[in-house]
Design goal:
Elements: H1 6-15, E1 21-27, H2 28-33, H3 36-39, E2 49-54, H4 58-70, E3 75-80, H5 85-89, H6 100-111, E4 118-123, H7 132-144, E5 149-153, H8 164-167, H9 175-184, E6 190-193, H10 199-205, E7 211-213, H11 216-220, H12 228-232, H13 242-248, H14 250-258, H15 264-267, H16 280-290, H17 298-306, H18 309-314
Parallel strand pairs: 1-2, 2-3, 3-4, 4-5, 5-6, 6-7
Helix pairs in contact: 4-6, 6-7, 16-17
């Protein structure tokens, strides 16, 4: 939430044409009773893109799945992994691991209404319910309900005592548990998530599971995804350079500014493009200091690019 916005997703689509992108999590209540058009808005170039839902009422989940399909999303995903207090108070997210039948009922209700894939993202456990048997029973329930894919964050979640940020770092990763789960459910497409920061590790994981979800690293260091299309999707398109990615954003940024948007809405997602590169710190500094000004425009992007382009050519 507040990270994989439509601006961020458009930017990532300039890096990879084929990786599946996920929206921010939107609750069923917000989608049904709030600004539906805003929550379902995306750029046509974002495909393939999945709508990520938070909720626990099967009828409401099915209704939102229909909205997702009507608006052209390629997948609808149930979030059973977020551990924040706000999510728990709404009885969705990671706490739903403790109610596998409720999740299964939502999957079944959604599958009955839409033809697009219905997927579930979960943890390997919650609190003291962290045995393999617990994870297996949860997986069995959603599999029987017809889930099209399970995406497993290979950490358990502590619903109390740890912040959402701490829940992404402190509970230890357990990749072998996810690999064992795939062996026990060979027909259920399964992706792994958590702590994966490079494509070599991705390739290693694909020896055990069907897919890999990369979250924080793709945000912090988006160019790590630049080789994904060629390496995993068989694409013969040239890998874009960082400066080519910046240039491909110009039209989108101009349209956003013309519509009354702010430059920072987009450039805050681009700060990591030159992560680890000569001039990367200057790139971030120019964007961070200047894009937040009320009159910031494409000249700010040019100023930031001028700090790295000569260095990129040398590198």
């Amino acid at each position: 939430m507040a990270w994989t916005t439509r601006e961020q997703r458009y930017f990532m689509r300039q890096v990879t044409r084929h990786a599946l992108l996920y929206t921010e999590m939107v609750t069923t209540g917000a989608l049904i009773h709030g600004d539906t058009a805003r929550f379902l808005a995306y750029h046509a170039d974002e495909h393939p893109v999945a709508l990520q839902l938070g909720g626990s009422d099967p009828a409401a989940m099915a209704h939102c799945a229909v909205l997702a399909e009507e608006h052209g999303f390629d997948e609808v995903n149930i979030n059973v992994g977020c551990p924040s207090d706000r999510v728990q108070n709404g009885t969705f997210g990671a706490c739903l691991m403790g109610e596998p039948q409720r999740v299964a009922d939502s999957v079944a209700a959604m599958k009955a209404q839409v033809s697009i894939p219905v997927t579930v993202k979960t943890r390997i456990g919650i609190d003291h319910q962290d045995s393999y048997e617990f994870l297996h029973a949860f997986t069995h329930a959603v599999n029987e309900a017809g889930a099209d894919q399970l995406i497993v964050h290979a950490r358990k979640a502590w619903l109390s005592g740890l912040s959402p940020k701490e829940n992404r770092d402190i509970p230890p990763l357990d990749y072998p548990r996810v690999h064992a789960l795939k062996q026990d459910f060979p027909a259920l497409p399964m992706s792994i998530n958590g702590g994966i920061v490079d494509l070599d590790t991705t390739a290693d994981q694909l020896e055990h599971v069907d897919g890999v979800m990369i979250g924080r690293e793709a945000y912090k260091n988006p160019y790590v995804m630049a080789e994904v299309d060629r390496r995993f999707f068989g694409s013969d398109h040239a890998v874009p350079s960082r400066s080519e990615i910046v240039d491909s954003m110009r039209g989108f940024i101009a349209d956003h500014l013309q519509a009354g948007g702010a430059l920072k809405d987009i450039t805050r997602h681009m700060l990591g493009l030159y992560h680890g590169q000569p001039g990367g710190r200057a790139w971030r500094r120019v964007l961070s200091e200047q894009a937040y000004k009320p009159d910031a425009d494409l000249n700010v992007l040019d100023a930031a690019l001028a700090r790295v382009e000569p260095l990129e050519a040398v590198a």
